[in-house]
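Hi all, a correction to my earlier message: I attached the wrong file for histone deacetylase. Here's the right sequence:
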Amino acid sequence: MASGSGAPSATEALRRRRILSSRLYLDDVPSSKAPVVYSPAYDISFNGIEKQHPFDSSKWGRVRNFLEDAGILQSDRIVEPLEALEDDLLVVHSESYLNSLKNSEKVARIVEVPAVALLPNLLVQQKLLYPFRKQVGGSVLSAKLALERGWAINIGGGFHHCSAEEGGGFCTYADISLCIHFAFVRLNISRVMIIDLDAHQGNGHEKDFGSDGRVYTLDMYNSGIYPFDHVAKKYIDHKVELDSGTKTEDYLENLDRALKVAQSRFQPQLIVYNAGTDILDGDPLGRLKVSPEGVAIRDEKVFRFAKDQNIPLLMLTSGGYMKSSARVIADSIINLSKKQLIDIDTRCNL
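and the right structure:
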């Protein structure tokens, strides 16, 4: 997927046509709207199936509710995205991969919920994959809003274990790869930095952009947990491998050093920030020991890194496997607003 000189390949030309014909980039988002993207369709709920995985599949709606309750974001100021359709998904994914999702057993393996294999695929598409496709649309649109406003937050997305040909770890669509390819074509940019601070390695986007010099990846993750993807590790431009049990102070010190290295090595036109809250102390899958205050400081550091260099930033909420994650995400966004790193209340310029 590396960019080359001369005429584009037939594959690249087809990708470009699909991107240019897509409806995911809404033409006019009024300035009265905040660059915060969410849809009630993000939340997954169907006969208790959502309780069979530790991921809190109502997290996204509860973040929105907390922000509304705090009085900093009214529902009529949130941008609702469109669903990513098959032609949109084919920008990154192959037809064979998308067709494989018509098999409920395949989806069950990806989302790690065995009971999904027993459901008719029509239900799987409607109740599980449709919410994911809406979140993909949100990630794609959020990149556009970030370039226009200086920052954007998709209260969802961040499916960083999914690559063009393979899903896994509750990630069925490669929204990070998709939003970057859309940005290359529609936003006329050629340098993107991924800052992946989910507790897990972002092996999906690493595989997709492994040979693409337009994308620089900073990935800081717990090396003792899923996915153990040693092939994808080779593609990380700057990796920071943490031990299980890493505490807040050490975590933030590692982040400071990593951001300094990234700043010295790459000058992006857009930052895609994968802001998983599975780094929280007590998270059953992340196995790190970062406090809620530490998460807010982490996010503040990344947003300040972007603001100091005047780089547009898109934040995705990604992983987080405790009920407390929604509150922590909302509190962090409120903190960003208080620190004037984002401006939700007015015209939303960074």
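Sorry for the mix-up. The CA atoms of residues 203 and 230 lie 9 Å apart.
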